[in-house]
Amino acid sequence: MTSMYTETKQLRNGVDMPRFGLGVYKMTDPEKTVEAITFALKNGYRAIDTAAVYENERETGEAIRAAGINRSELFITSKVWNTDQGYDQTLRAFETSLKKLDLDYLDLYLTHWPVPETYVDTYRAIERLYEEKLIRVPGVSNHHVRHLDELKLTANVQPMVNQVELHPLLTQIPLRDYCLDNGIAITSWSPLARGQLLENTVLNEIGRRHGKTAAQVIIRWHLQHDLIVIPKSITPERILENSQIGDFRLTDEEMTAIDGLNRNERTGTDPDSLG
Fold first, then answer.
1. What is the DSSP code (8-state) at residue 83?
2. How many CB atoms lie within 10 A of CB 17?
3. Active site residue 5
4. Of 9, 12, 10, 15, nearest to 182 (Cα)?
5. Domains plus CATH for the chain?
């Protein structure tokens, strides 16, 4: 195995999505954002996860152009923000995102949060974008089982990806089981629990055995659970470190030990708080 992780996951419609990519949440300095994304792309990353509310879609597009990589080799994700949701509003928001990114299409477009009054209509708009081939994959983010069940009642094409907070402190097993049964791939956001686990003794001991850091162990844990993972970093050293997880595997015992760290503890917003 090479150290750079490059495997893909085939989604329900046959599209191959990279299992590992770069999240760009909280990348707010325009120059540093372009530099970080360009560095990642030039060093083997092929998936970039942005969103309208991150306010760095323009910089993401600039970095894509600077990297000089064929568009067909990239997998670009963005999301419609809560205040832009609804059927017509989502279509307009998508046009704005596409223009900022300076792209002809997106690989994946997501409802960012299940806003109670609008998330069903928002997903209807995402379905239309999929039908018109402006996106390759329709998806959602931060959707619980009840939200996914609600979409089932009206959607012609079910979401193929659900991006949710997931890490060893919040393993989300019931949701993972539901998504597995319904052919929905899961992308883990905040995969490192916002750094809360980097000093954990269990993870560091496992890392010592493999010559890896706690962060690399956590990322590997996600991958071995068939999760897509998008750790974020703006520093070149960490961007490289996070990607060097293709040359080792965790044992069944190590996976079980990491599973045991679960406390159903969130570092971000609970979607249920939206109503």
1. G
2. 23
3. no
4. 12
5. 14-193 (3.20.20.100)
Q: What is the rounded distance in angstroms from the CA atom of residue 22 to the CA atom of residue 243?
A: 9
- DSSP string of 84-128, one letter each residue: G-SHHHHHHHHHHHHHHHT-S-EEEEEESS--TTTHHHHHHHHHH
Query: What DSSP assignment string belongs to 202-271?
Result: HHHHHHHHHT--HHHHHHHHHHHTT-EE--B--SHHHHHHHHB-SS----HHHHHHHHTT-----SS--G
Task: List the chain residues with pLDDT less than 70.
Answer: 1
pLDDT tens-digit readout, 4-44: 899 999 999 999 999 999 999 999 999 999 999 999 999 99
Q: How far apart are CA 225 and CA 173, in angstroms?
A: 11
Among candidate residues 50, 94, 64, the one with its CA nearest the CA of residue 189: 50
Q: 3-class SS at 47? A: strand
- Please report, as a single letter, which amino acid is at residue 5: Y
Q: By C-alpha distance, which of 238, 245, 195 is closest to 220?
A: 245
How far, in Å, CA of 139 to CA of 147, rounded? 12
- Count CB atoms within 10 A of the CB of residue 5: 23
Catalytic residue, from 5, 25, 45, 54: name it: 54
Query: Which long-range CB contacts under 8 A does 267-274 form with residues at least 24 apart?
Result: 267/165, 267/167, 267/169, 267/170, 267/190, 267/193, 267/194, 267/196, 268/165, 268/189, 268/190, 269/113, 269/142, 271/113, 271/114, 271/142, 271/143, 271/144, 271/147, 272/144, 274/113, 274/114, 274/115, 274/116
